[in-house]
Fold:
Amino acid sequence: MHRVHHSRVPRETDSNYSNIFSFWDRAFRTYRPPQAGSAIATGLDDCDAPARQRTSGLLTLPFQA
Structure:
């Protein structure tokens, strides 16, 4: 359920905040059910470069504009 939150689609990113108890998302109307059988593209659009996936790239990520 929470993997929908890590989608690249903004509508899905702004949903499914809870990891265990979905009643919080249901109560605050942020629940989006995952589509059965569909793959979810996760990650950040500007972080796909191989250099950004190395340890050095990940450690410097918070300091980049």
Notes: Residues 4 and 35 are 9 Å apart (CA to CA). The chain has a mean pLDDT of 81.
